[in-house]
Amino acid sequence: MKKLPVMVTALLLALIFLTGCGATPEKEAAPPAKEEPQETGAEKTASVDHSQLVTGPFEKPQDVTAKCITCHEEQAEEVMATIHWNWAGPTPNIVGHENQTDLGKRNGINNFCISVVSNEVKCFQCHIGYGTEFEGKENIDCLVCHAQEGGYKKDKKGMPAEGVDLVAAAQSVGRPTIKNCGTCHFYAGGGDAVKQGDLDSTLLNATAEHDVHMGGNGLACVDCHAGENHKIKGTSIHIEPTEGSVKCESCHGNAPHEMDKLNEHIDTVACQTCHIPTFAKGQPTKMYWDWSTAGQDIEAEKDEYGKETYSKKKGSFVWAKDVVPTYAWYNGKVERYIVGDPINPDGVTVLAKPVGSIDDPNAKIYPFKVMKGKQPADAKNNILLTPNVLGFWKHFDWDKALADGAAASGLDYSGEYKFVETEMYIGINHEVVPKENALTCNDCHSENGRIDFKALGYEGDPMQVGSRFSKEK
Length: 473
Known about the structure:
Shape: globular
InterPro entries: Cyt_c7-like, Multihaem_cyt_sf, Multiheme_Cytochr_ET, Octahem_Cyt_c
Protein name: Cytochrome C
Keywords: Signal
Signal peptide: 1-23
Region (Disordered): 26-47
């Protein structure tokens, strides 16, 4: 046999390697019925090149918006009808408030920064408008979601920060990236990873092991959360309004596993429960916030993560990393504390809690971060109060801060206050790990398994006593 030239041999070997020729699989995989080309999140950010369409200079940011509206007036109308613009919207999932359309940041309360009311100036740095305005299309901040260059960011008053190049920012607009969304959502609650245990700056350069969607498949937030007409899909336990839900099944179907036994779990166990074994993998998240110690001259110390455990402005904190979630039944409905609701006088006041039980066929076991806190309440009226936190940071007078905040939110303040324990459930939906790192049977179904089945209503481990749908439970 005549010897082939070295170059030809190399090319043939490369072709065999790339095409898989010579392989002898046990079973040839059937070709998909229809396979559409897939784009990564980065590729999808490509948009119409605006560098020649938008010219400056711009004297003020509203001039940029005016330019956008010349082509996108319909989109501006859409934005002004969204929750991101109004900070309020429909609440079909909140028990007792299913038909309301005006609940949002002004009616809610949390155990982080407590309330938007009377603290708006600080909060507007994450509003999609300029300054403190909720009116006028010219005040829509298109750049906060769409600018890719120009160093775009907002200052504490909701305006473009000093040094931002408005022309460069406007010319660079495109599909929102993880950075665009994360600029606000990663830092909710007062800092990186403070509120959302599964959302932090790590996702900007995530590995597949950290988050298989954003790190492994190059997806951006809007690949899952974008709806129509600028409405952003997503349902949170602790956030009142919603513009639609996002479900794993939308992409993965109702029987995503090769094993039937795993698919049988889907009626009872949410995908997130097995595929997010822990949260706060990249950055520690705040798990407890005690406002009662704020204003005192206590020496601040740092914990094992390098996080301060005390701040005169904010009180005492407990941080945690690689946290095993709390598991609870959830059917999509929520019990939510609204400003003016009575507190629990005999124990912990729950600010947000999933609804569901073992007897509810629509409920599944979901993972949650349970944020615990201690915050001010009216000692006589037994309602939570909405302090003017920004004012408190100047004078450290709780009585004045509570009186000012109550006046702003329309609450009746008796002049006497106390600090009460609260807790708030926050859903865990990100930091999905690769399938080989998901929980296995023994992680839950063992003597020291992570799930307390009796606390969930079972008589014991369902592998021993039967599932909730069986005759024997």
